[in-house]
Design a protein that fits this description.
The chain is 56% helix and 7% strand. It is mostly helical. The strands form 2 sheets. A 3-stranded parallel β-sheet has the order 1-2-3. It binds tryptophan.
Length: 334
Amino acid sequence: MARPRVLSGIQPTADSFHLGNYLGAVRQWVSMQETHDAFYCVVDLHALTVQPNPDDLRRRSRVAAAQLLAAGLDPERCTVFVQSHVRQHSELAWVLMCLTGMGEAGRMTQFKDKSAKFGENAAGVGLFNYPILMAADILLYQTDQVPVGADQKQHLELTRDLAQRFNHRYGETFTLPAPYIVKEVEKITDLQEPTAKMSKSSSSPQGILDVLEPAGALRKKVMRAVTDTGTEVLADAENKPGVTNLLRIHSALSGTPVPELEARFAGEGYGTFKKAVAEIVVDTFTPLRERAEKLLADEAELDRLLAIGARRAGAVAEETMVRVRDRVGFLPGA
Ligand code: TRP
């Protein structure tokens, strides 16, 4: 039996991934390369929707790719590539846009949130089309499963609708992808505001743990994390969201169940507990940061690895596009 095909994407919009990205996406991707035929994509076309300056986008695309490789994605076992290297993503997005209703795209809650934030006129057409490009990413590879956070579920439903619509109108062409929802990340919250999700767009720098930050900064942030009144290290999401978040972080990184951690730190107080959390974060991120730095120091080698990924991804994408072009009625040749 062939392994199920999986595809996921991550945006190069920051100079480092954060703990939420690591637990919710990156770590999951690493383990799925063993069980799936995996394609992982740094989605720079998506990042363009917020108009980054070109040098930032270039740097962040390399930084994102380096972190993925540093985290353990192995180009021999999965395909890691940059979206803009595979031109078929834009090409299929256009075809799918022509199948999408204005109202349908306008109902996407992430678009509505973002356009509300940027203001009606500042939100560009790129942002409006973002989910359709994501559908193209997924459908190009005949993807069976898409590991995403719960916030992407609506985009995946749109992807399925578009695949079905295309198949119905033009004949069976696309595999219908299923979501593979990663629950963990929803639970990791901001260190300073432990009832809000840890997120690049909404957390303050003090509330977020970055994969590439130095050990000293990570320790400081954990030690200064908001805790709750009382002294007991107990999980209680309602009354002790700060301590609960730190317990979840420890548990996710150490693999120790929360009740076991509660027993271990019974009577110890917050200080000792926080030190232990800081150490496990540092122990996880330090080797990753060192490997990423090494990869980034040799840009030519990093670009060579990405070119291999692009070739592999491009071959699969082209196979799909050959069929799509014919089905919709484009002329052969050229
Ligand atoms: N929109 C996704 C996010 O913000 C990123 C993404 C782009 C993606 N293309 C994708 C995820 C394809 C899964 C599959 O998380």
